[in-house]
Here is the input.
Amino acid sequence: MALADIIKRTCKKLGENNKPTYVVMAIATVKGICRPTFTMMDKKENPETKKYTALREGLTEVIAIPAYWACGEAAGALAKKVFKDKALAGRAEKNLMFMGVCIAALFVIPGLCSVAIKPIMDKMGLKAPEDKKHSESPQIPAQIQNTYTPAPTNPLPHKNTFPQMQAYTSRPQTGLRVGGL
Here is the structure.
C-alpha cells in the first residue's frame, strides 16, 4: 500500500469523525507541551521566572483539556435530546459542541484556573517572581510625600494648586498611544 493511500484514508476518516471537541483538545495538548518547553528555553529570562511561568502554562492546559471535553460533550448530548430528526441532530450536535467549547474557553477554563492554579502553586512552594518583589511594603519617596498644596479659600481662575501629575504616570505623554489610554 502506497503512502499516498494511507494519508488519503487517514484524512477521510478524520474528516468523517471530526468533532470540535477533539480539535480543541488536540490544540490544548500541543500548547500544554510546547509553551512550557519554549518558556524554559528562553536564555534571557530569570530561571525562577521561567520555572513559575512554564508550570503555570502547563497547569492551565491540564485544566483546559478536560474542561473542553466536558463542555463539548455536554452540549452535544443536549442536541441529541432536543433534536429527534437524525440528520438535523448530527449538524446540531456539532454546532452545539462548538458552542460548548467556546463557553469553556470564555468562562469555564478562566474560572477553574483562577480557583485552582494559585493553591496548587502555593502547595508546590512557588510564588510569582512579582509577588516576591512586592512582598515588602513600598516606600514613597520624600519628594512625592508632601507635594499636595491645598486650594486657597478664594482661588484665582488660572492658578493650578495641584501637583503636576505628569511626573507620576507611567504611560507615554507624547506619540502614539495604543489601547486608548
Observations:
- The mean pLDDT is 79.
